[in-house]
Each structure stands twice: as C-alpha cells, then as structure tokens.
Amino acid sequence: MAAESILDVIGGTPSVWLDRMVARRGLKGRILAKLDYLNPGISKKDRAALGIIEAAERDGSLQPGQTVVELTSGNMGTGLAIVCGIKGYPFVAVMSRGNSVERARMMAALGADVVLVDQASGSVPGEVSGADLALVDAEAQRLTAARGAFRADQFEREGNAAAHYRTTGPELWAESDETLTAFADFAGSGGTFAGTMRALSERNPKIKGYLVEPEGAAVLAGQPARDPAHPIQGGGYAMADLTLLEGVQADGHLSISGDEARETARAMAREEGIFAGFSAGANVAAALRLLDGAQAGGVVGVVICDSGLKYLSTDLWA
Q1: Global pTM?
Q2: 188, 81 contact by CB (below 8 A)
C-alpha cells in the first residue's frame, strides 16, 4: 500500500549484519547495523524531527503556521525541513559554516531558510567545536525571539528520545532476533542512545549501553576536553550536560579518533557496500572494538546515522 506522505515512511529502516567486517578482523560475535541513512532525509534525525514536531502539536506549544527554528549540523535540519514542509510550518535552520556544504544545500532545496554562522576564532572548517556550537545556539535563540518562533531544541525536547524509544529500539531488538547484548552510539544530542537504550533495557535488562565520543573530547566519560576539534560532524561537542541522557545508564564509554572513524567508514564502503558518514564510522569502529574486548562473542547494535553523500566535500572520501 502506498504511503499518504513522505512522513509515513520515516523509520522502519532495514538492518544488516556486518559479518564480513567482523570475520576479516578475526573477531567473534556480530554487529547489527540499522541503515538509517535510508530515511527520507538521509539520516536518523528524521525520527527525532517528526517526534519533536508531533509532540509539540499535541501539547499546543507549536501553533498552526508558526515558524520553527533549530540549530543543526545538517541532519536534524534536513529532517525538520521535510516534516515542517509537509505540515505547513516555515523552518529556519541555523548551522555552522564548519559543517559540510552539502547539508546546507539539501536543506535549502527542501524549503528551509538556512542561516550559516561563522566559526569561532581558530576553528577549522570541517571540525565543529563546542565554541562553534555556542555561536550557532546564540543565533538560534536570537532568531527564535525575533520571529516568535517555536524552538525545536533537539538537545532538550523529549520528543527526540521518545521517537527512538518507540521505533529504533524495538526495531533493532526484533531485527536481531532478540539476540542483542549491547548498543553503542556516538553522542550528539543523546536522544538516540537514551531512547534506544530505554526500549532495549525493557526487553533485556542485561543489555549493555556504550556511549561513543571523539578522542580528546570524551567529557561524558569524565575526561577533560584536551582536543575538542575533530572531523566527526554531528556530535562530540565536549558538552558534559546532555539533558536527554539524564537517568539513562551508560555501561561504558569509547573514544574514537577522527582517523579511526574515517578509516572504518571507508572500510565499511569497500567491505559491506554501505556508504556512510563519519559518525557511522565511529559507531562501527566502537562496535568492532567491543567485539575485541568487553563484548567478545556478543551481538552489538549500531545505527548508520547518515550517508557518505553528505561528506563529499570533506576529507572523508578524499
């Protein structure tokens, strides 16, 4: 049966076993990768965008025709551009110039008003730091007030994690034939990890959750931010307080370097035919490391967050 709109095909993405990568490295166990780059906006953030907007419609905090504003690395903005376009809300995406240009062009093509914010002094293009994010947040706050807008606020609104609780977690559990022993996820807003782990823990209280951060900026693991500049776009902003992670137990933390994320994404393309982005590379690198250690012989679930198509202007595929 055909869907009534593009919103009806958000979620329900397929999952694939990465058995070739595991075997090639001589590891024991399995990795289940959920291909969320097959969502309409080419990322997992479509789920959160729909969850936040529909929750705001239900509680009345978003009025018909009201402008929506959100800071984004590009993926959340793309999801919101799709959701807001279908539902009739003008959308303003506020993004750092440090993010890849493909993201801004895609959001604009989908009808978003894209506002690009210059990076902080000393920042490197392609490496969005916490200081860069603070500038983007300040501009998003200004625009929200100036336009009487609804701030989607993916870092605070429970609709983000709730979407993954309702969809991502149950999907991964069912698609693993109820065999998952762990879930690992690169921390952006924290919504994917929080919602997915709540759902998985209800189904198997023994399942382990691992937060993934960039090497040198692993503040959620209690380490100082020695080097907050890194190429893994969409997270790792060295933010110690992520509201959506409150009350969610992390059983371990893994730090992945930009080089390791890059090389794993490239290997995934060659060995599994999955053309993914930096954060997906970080997730799979973390899963491989777990199978070589704490989860040897286990079954680790990860999300393939977005597509390599969003990084063609970066050094990911250079």
Answers
A1: 0.94
A2: no
